[in-house]
């Protein structure tokens, strides 16, 4: 049986519509316009695409978008100065510093310089601690988008076996925390996990976030499982012409779609939900700032 395709693009549109409606209400009733500042250091092409999309969608839901592009050789102290200005700016409710940062910068120090109440990414150490202890927290956007799709598809997640493949601070670890909060039995698997295929095959919910093109094969997936593919990998596509590339996830979609119960595609799955959740986080921060 072929798996249900979980349409992240369509779901993200409904989330953005809800955010836009709330923003319009805030504007009309309180004269408040939520603002998101995005800081990009350097010229990484993938980061430039993400930042452009974030800016465009922020404006589309009626929020203010403030973009700050700094050259790759910017000193960390200058970036910290900019963050201090954004922290103090009442028109800015959410701040995001695009990662990765150039190697000469200490990413932890930069992220922890963001005022926790403006931490739209949920990467600040205080947001991480709040989430880990089950308190109200800014939640990282990619895992939040995954959770929303899982809840929409499954309803109650209680008691399900969830395997998170990947242990990054941005996706794997917060994803595991969120699934635990929803009463799943959670395993974090990674490159050193013994017999990875067998561990993954025990999952009712499998979230793949390792950055390895098409790593998860059909025999790694329990029949009927829900598979969330966080990977965005560019691989050569000679069939499209010389030098052409195509996007694939961490899951071998063509094979796994025949085994899984539901699966997110790449592109059109997790990606659009990430930006929608960033906008939702910014709106939450603005509402909290307004009291
Ligand atoms: N780089 C890749 N994903 C992300 C993200 O979600 N937030 C930030 N700030 N940088 C990223």
Automatic annotation (TrEMBL):
Keyword Signal annotated: no
Keyword annotations of the record: Amino-acid biosynthesis, Histidine biosynthesis, Hydrolase, Methionine biosynthesis, Multifunctional enzyme, NADP, One-carbon metabolism, Oxidoreductase, Purine biosynthesis
GO molecular function, one term: methylenetetrahydrofolate dehydrogenase (NADP+) activity
InterPro entries, per the entry: Aminoacid_DH-like_N_sf (IPR046346), NAD(P)-bd_dom_sf (IPR036291), THF_DH/CycHdrlase (IPR000672), THF_DH/CycHdrlase_cat_dom (IPR020630), THF_DH/CycHdrlase_CS (IPR020867), THF_DH/CycHdrlase_NAD-bd_dom (IPR020631)
Catalytic activity, as annotated: (6R)-5,10-methenyltetrahydrofolate + H2O = (6R)-10-formyltetrahydrofolate + H(+); (6R)-5,10-methylene-5,6,7,8-tetrahydrofolate + NADP(+) = (6R)-5,10-methenyltetrahydrofolate + NADPH
Gene3D superfamilies given in the database record: Leucine Dehydrogenase, chain A, domain 1 (3.40.50.10860), NAD(P)-binding Rossmann-like Domain (3.40.50.720)
SUPFAM superfamilies associated with the record: Aminoacid dehydrogenase-like, N-terminal domain, NAD(P)-binding Rossmann-fold domains
Signal sequence region: none
Pathways per UniProt: One-carbon metabolism; tetrahydrofolate interconversion
Domain Tetrahydrofolate dehydrogenase/cyclohydrolase NAD(P)-binding span(s) in chain numbering: 140-288
Database matches in Pfam families: THF_DHG_CYH, THF_DHG_CYH_C
Gene Ontology biological process terms in this record: L-histidine biosynthetic process; methionine biosynthetic process; purine nucleotide biosynthetic process; tetrahydrofolate interconversion
Key word Phosphoprotein present: no
GO CC, one annotated term: cytosol
Enzyme Commission number(s) of this protein: 1.5.1.5, 3.5.4.9
Domain called Tetrahydrofolate dehydrogenase/cyclohydrolase catalytic: residue spans: 6-121
Similarity section: Belongs to the tetrahydrofolate dehydrogenase/cyclohydrolase family.
Subunit composition and interactions: Homodimer.
Summary of the function given for this chain in its UniProt record: Catalyzes the oxidation of 5,10-methylenetetrahydrofolate to 5,10-methenyltetrahydrofolate and then the hydrolysis of 5,10-methenyltetrahydrofolate to 10-formyltetrahydrofolate.
NCBIfam families (alphabetical): PRK14186.1, PRK14188.1
Protein name (Swiss-Prot/TrEMBL): Bifunctional protein FolD
Gene (UniProt): folD
